[in-house]
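Limitations
The structure tokens in this dataset are predictions for the assembled complex, not deposited experimental models. Users should treat interface geometry with appropriate caution, especially where small molecules or nucleic acid strands are included. An illustrative entry is reproduced here so readers can see what is and is not provided.
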Amino acid sequence: MASQPSDPNKTTPKSQQLFSCDLALSEQEKELNQRLRSLYPAVNEQETPLPRSWSPKDKFSYIGLSQNNLRVHYKGHGKTPKDAASVRATHPIPAACGVYYFEVKIISKGRDGYMGIGLSAQGVNMNRLPGWDKHSYGYHGDDGHSFCSSGTGQPYGPTFTTGDVIGCCVNLINNTCFYTKNGHSLGIAFTDLPPNLYPTVGLQTPGEVVDANFGQHPFVFDIEDYMREWRTKIQAQIDRFPIGEREGEWQAMIQKMVASYLVHHSYCATAEAFAKSTDQAVHEELASIKNRQKIQKLVLSGRMGEAIETTQQLYPSLLERNPDLLFMLKVRQFIEMVNGTDSEVRCLGGRSPKSQDSYPGSPRLFNSPVHKASSSQTYQTSTYYIHKFFFLPAWVKKTLPEGYYKKRDKTTQVSITVSFVLKLIGTPVLTQLSTGPKKYRFLVPIPSHCTAQNNTEVEMEVDHFSNGVSESSSNGFLNGSSTHGIDLEELDSAQSKRQLCGGSQAAIERMIQFGRELQSMSENLRRERGKNSANKKMLKDAFSLLAYSDPWSSPVGYQLDSIQREPVCSTLNSAILETHNLPKQPPLALAVGQAAQCLSLMARTGSGSCAFASVDDYLH
Amino acid sequence: MACIEILFRISDKFTATSRHYVDRLFDPDPQNVLQGVIDMKNAVIGNNKQKANLIVLGAVPRLLYLLQQSSSSLELRTECAVVLGSLAMGTENNIKSLVDCHIIPALLQGLLCSDLIFIEACLRCLRTIFISPVTPVQLLYTDPTVIPHIMSLLSRSQHTQEYITQIFAHCCKTPEHQMVLFNHGAIQNIAPLLISPSYKVRMQALKCFSVLAYENAQVSMTLVNVLVDGEQLSQVFARMMQRDKPIEMQLTAAKCLTYMCRAGAIRTDDNCIILKTLPCLVRMCSKERLLEERVEGAETLAFLMEPDIELQRIASVTDHLVSMLADYFKYPSSVSAITDIKRLSKLRHTRDFCNQLDHDLKHAHELRQAAFKLYASLGSNDEDIRKKITETENMMDRIVSGLSESSIKVRLAAVRCLHSLSRSVQQLRTSFHDHAVWKPLMKLLQNAPDEVLVMASSTLCNLLLEFSPSKEPILESGVIELLCSLTQSDSPALRVNGIWALMNMAFQADQKVKVEIVRALGTEQLFRLLSDPDTNVLMKTLGLLRNLLSTRPHIDQIMSSHGKQIMQAVTLILEGEHSIEVKEQTLCILANIADGNTAKELIMTNDDMPQKIKYYMGHSNVKLQLAATFCISNLIWNEEDGSQERQDKLREMGFVDILHKLTQASDPSLCDRAKTAMQQYLA
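Predicted assembly:
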């Protein structure tokens, strides 16, 4: 396989310079990543990685690579054209680049300067210069000719030699290619290019050396300017796209979409006003919209218990018929309990939850959970793993992924101390959990350095934990809230302490109990409806929260983020709408989703224009 | 018949309503007048017929009267300005009528009012009038107080900015205009508008700079030092050339930078020229651009790189420019095709279609001349580029047919292109001969305007070079008379080219040709040219003489018939105040004369001449010493009749001593020459 990704970092730099070399390398790497991201924002590198160096595997033996596989030199005899040799880049050019560009600097023209710069498809013979074979394209330095899958070249540009910088630009929108010499565009060289071409260089005589720049350094040619032109072109094309021919049809459709979106998300006051001013009928009764709004607000503010109750009241058979949905809601309720926001734990007194139940602004558009699980996890936390598991309730242990047990740190002195301290204050037996306050103290966040040094003072000094999530205190999403009788607590954003279940013991007990109920519910569900991996994972992730001293900054802590209420809210909303025979997704969201899907499909099928038509550009 | 009747009735009705509108302007009640003007405004919008009617019926003087009356309400005056602006939007005839009614001074007077709405209405109307090609731009400059006042209005509003910059951009046509605007602070006042939030203002401000900087070193030098929002103006222009900016903006910004560069304010190797302006202008030549843009792009690019070989080299490899220009000739496919369509369309009475074709035809001419200009500029220095141009598809054919096109502009550009290519020895030997370019060139030389003649005759000079295969056929076509007539022209450039061509023609020519040249030119004209105030003419005339006086039989023959005059002329020049080059050339002629068999005696028998030669042998300039020594060496050359006597005579005059001294000269060639001469005595 030619397209094995090779990480330049992995090649061992020679001699003693190792350290400084690594530093410079990472600096260069950073610059490269940054430049590639800004040049090709539409490329999904997970799916289609960008070329970053020449491939040590996909080259002819007469080619030598050095300098992190960026420098190419010829090491054959160089007697006849049969001694020609090429190398391809590690990856083909992704279509989602829209416009792709790389440069090659001629370090030395060697004996005769028979150098070819260009593109070739995977599998094209490497014992040749680019351009000589089918699906191979090249611009040659000795005569300045372009070779388009043919042994005979066409007059194309000037010759090039030592010191020149030759650039190759592939336009994946119209499938053409042009070259540049020292920053000057030489004009179109090839048209009708096939997809998935690799940057390629070929050399033929001894002494020839060239360096590639795939974005490691600024380019000599102003490629951004060229891209700007194409972005403008594509956007103009979209803007000019002909819409419905009959007058008013287009406008009416847009209005319908907006209205249905407002109704779907239960912005009833706005929806009403909008429908009135645009003279439309709303297909759902106002009362029904308000009911949904009420439930959504509960979910979004983290008050899951109430949300479930209200749903059961208003739509009696809904959750009975949808046990999976109910299960999901309950899991969310459990998470909110950990968070301290759920109604059941809140009424149990203790400290009233601060800040956790804030919900920033209105719901994010179109349920696109951009929020990724935070993978950064502090070392302090990880040293606890081993001890935490010790004390974890069995039902929690059971649901934890195996990896959690294995993923232990090399036991250090610190962790031994901690372990000792923890043993003193808690007993690893499930039954004892509910007996006294001391027993579950370990579940309360403990700052590691504090514990490590003053092992007698494990009393809860939680001040060291600063809540990194500074949330907006705005409740702006409450459209007409005062009429619905749900009053959310005033938020005190200055208060930023986070405590498990709001810090109340009773609440923690309730949470533990709820967890058990959830576990049995899960078992029942499995018995009745067979295995459900989604449910299993959901529960596992939720219970994992208890494995950390500070669940909020743990690898599974993302679940506590209020943004995670959105998918739950939206699923519930859709389920309710479905029972009324209404679409479970608003047409607007559907259209946006389709557009996004269409773009990624374009990327996969090689339509480069997707690069300059990001849906986000149109959602302000 | 019925049809025509209806037409009449309709036009009657039109006039009647128009009359009604005009009548209302004279109503005694000012309120009614105002309403009348407002109704008139609504009636004329987009209605050219109505506009013409109102003008014919005399609405303009009345509106102007109302506009100028201080007793009129501001609202009425404003509405009058708006209606006048609307009338100006019509045909060119409308503009002419308005200008004839002295609308411009009236509106300029109106600008003194303090009310912004009124000022804007006046400016808008002025703008419409001044951007019309029928308005004499001078009217803006008649009153010297106008420009400073208008300049002060720039700060009033976005609208005043837009209108004023547009007026300036259209009314700055001469260096005098540039200086008037420059001296009244145009640069400082307009520069900040380049970052105005309004696109129109930015664009018009940019246009102002392009007309201000054109061939104006003072403006250009000032521009490079101007900062807009902390940024250099050249950077602002460079940003305006970005490829996502509107084409109009890119092109105009490129023009600004081009003019600044040509005026010496920006170096040609500056990145903003080499990496931004030049590629931008090349892009403007691409097929995707509008015809007007392609023309402007090519002309500006030609201007930019004319003096710089490096820019020419870069442009010649940028985006296939050379073959891209070939497309300029493919529009329209052929002139005859267009006329055919025109004839056809006339049958169908589609006048608009016809106008469109005229428009296209004009563009076809513009495109071709622009392409020729650009080729001329590209090929003016580099041999490889010239080769590339002549190898472009049908290029020589295109030039040849361009030479005989009806449009003078095209002919001129074609001959410029040909001239540029004729600097190539290789092309003269090959493509020029293969395509018999001399034929249309000769035709072009018959009664063409001076500017074409200059280029054509200059090209002819190159075609008459000794190694040019076209020389023979040109000679046979009776070119001598034509060239001799050029030497009598009032234009120094034409005189130079005429005599230059004759000089080239006489080089190593047959006796017959030489005699013909002398005969056709006439000694009188020849001597008139020797006293020409233009040194170039003098030099080439001397060159002609020198070429005529080569090979012994020719020397003797010409000297026997014109010896006296020639000796006189040589004496005159050697005695006169002339540059070293002129004197050197003259001494060379003398040396040639000294090479003749009988002609030698003309020098020997001349009382003065040997003394003059002696003087120049002792001159401080080596070149003159060399030429004079050469002359003596010819006179004393052995193996020729009477050499002994001449040697003796010259020895008496002290030449041997001088020669001896010169054998010690530091200049090796002078030293060699003197030694050779001395050997003649020793032999």
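Some entries come with short summary sentences. For this one: Residues 1-10 of chain B have pLDDT under 50 and may be disordered.
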